[in-house]
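Example complex used in Figure S2.
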Amino acid sequence: MRGGEAIIESLKNMGVKTIFGYPGGQTIPFYDMLYDSDMDHILVRHEQCAAHAADGYARASGKVGVCLATSGPGATNLVTGIATAYMDSSPIVAITGQVPTHLIGNDAFQEADIIGITMPITKHSYQPKDPDLIPSMIKSSFEIASSGRPGPILIDVPKEVQEGELTKFDDSLISTPGYNPNTKGNIRQIKKARDLIKQSKRPMIIAGAGVIISNACCELKKLADTIEAPVMTSLLGKGAIDETDDLALGMLGMHGRKVSNDYINESDLLIAVGIRFSDRTTGRLDSFAPDTKVIHIDIDPAEIGKNVDVDLPIVGDARNVLSSLNKLLKDYEVSNDVKSWANMIREKKQELLPRVTYDDVPLKPQTVIKEISEVLTPESILTTDVGQNQMWAAHFYNTQKPRKFISSGGLGTMGFGFPSAIGAKVACPDDPVVSINGDGGFLMVCQELATVHEYDIPVIAVVLENRTLGMVYQWQSLLYDERHSQTLLGNSPDFVKLAESFGVNGVRITKPGETKEALSNAIKDNEPVLLNVVIDSEEALPMLPPGAGINEMIGEYKLEKDVI
Amino acid sequence: MTLEYHVISTLVEDKPGVLQKVAGMFNRRGFNIDSITVGKSEVEGQSRMVITVHADEKGLEQVTKQLNKLIDVIKIKDITQTAVKRELCLVKVSVPNAKARAEIMQYTNIFRAHILDVSEQTLMVELTGDKEKINAFISLVENYGIKRIARTGLTAMSRGV
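Predicted assembly (725 residues):
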């Protein structure tokens, strides 16, 4: 068996059926061996999209996503995708070709020190110098990528190692004695959490991506029900709880729901689970829950106390910790104080529901998201790009199940929405997959229309067209005297024609009701389609300006209850 | 918060790129390494790194936790309080005249240092000790004119079992 075959064999042993990649000079041996194998390979049209697709696959399925690129520019094109996965704790394995070992360091053609370049954005990396090490390195990569706090792993394989014969297929040659994530959670700390919860009169839960990653959504729901605590989420925590639940308040933070931002500081106990308290979630730190006790549950000890000061840290897997905590709370009885707090929040949630009903033309993005919500089932997957489109989707779309809302949170990568939807659709072929994009971000990755066409991947790409780089435009409007420097995109391209040139059906939408109809048809037809939705370029969500506290939003928060 | 000087002893895998990972992490997270020394440890395939860093309490906690996250880092200990700390320093001092030569040789004896090389105009002194001792010696011989200094950075080991 040769090195390249060992890669394929090892990936199969890890349960991989599909990889996303783009060949090049230093991966020709691998691709030659792939030719004879039954491994599915999806040829993307830019390496960055291979990484995003692997990431989308991982987030939708909970399994490790795999992407492949050649050395040098192929590898550096993966960097944005790897960094995106790193910031959002997504398990991907990126395999790159490298120039032959004897040329490494010589500035050979298409040589780049990709291990060095990706060191700060990978959880770990390997470079097999001997084909015998390939099975062990791949096995170890999958274990590290998917355990503890997940993250991307890079394996850089020199060309002659792909071609070299293995003496033996053995995947137990590598041990990682320094890697022992603490998953269980210290029981004494969990007992202290129980005591704090019992003393609390106004408890609140804030759930992050960690809840989804550790499959702890049932445990979270049980805790919330037991102690009648309202649940807010971070952007990536969307789906940790069914957002149609009357105590699920929705997203918190810079563009969060008013009810979350207004009432978090009223609580006396904040139970934070699987969240890293990013600046976009907290606003200014000293006015974030200043008089509130904080319990922080996370598998990564480095996240505890990094941003928000914590009264009770619990290091461990969210699911393990929450299920221990739930056992300890069996005899918990909801006090009258807690009851009236929960009821007050329930009322406020209804009262402060954001307005989504408009019949304006040009369309309000709120209406577009509302119509999408009306068509999609709880099983449907929604991916977003980055910017206003992302915040509108996060704000107005009620996610009901985990792994059904996929977005680039930490890195905020424009161009993530469409390729991650491709990965999600490959992972979950039976669920409708819709990606919401802006016209700016979509144009960064529109070449993947060729991919969805060639492989007949029925992803629905919604392109919200406002002909601006909306988020920056919005900041310029609010904070920079309406000096719209370099944020006007002009009137090109025609997105319908663009889609058609790739063989993908395009629909132009300008009026209320049309999104709903076109989306229903697209799901029925089960074909890739682009919905080009023309929206009002002046519409913007209220926001926390830089340096503001969580309850100091600017801009008018329009309410659904005010609709006449 | 006050910055304090901490000595962290770290057991790491003896593999290419580990020093880069550790140093890169410090740089990326905005911590300054004062010194770092690396060498083989008592375990085959593992090296010991001794890192000195200026950090406040919160910073030190982050440094330790972030170091722990590196897969190649096996064990970390803050040994600031308990450790014997030593650094090796080579100093080349100018010797303007015979009187200076005699004085420098006296200082060398007092500091239990050694003379490694002698030329007509210079003396090379090898000195071992903690930071303060080395700084004291350097400031004593500064007046004669220092040609060159090479310091290894601190290595350290905790006392007792």
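The radius of gyration of chain A is 24 Å. Chain A has a mean pLDDT of 97.
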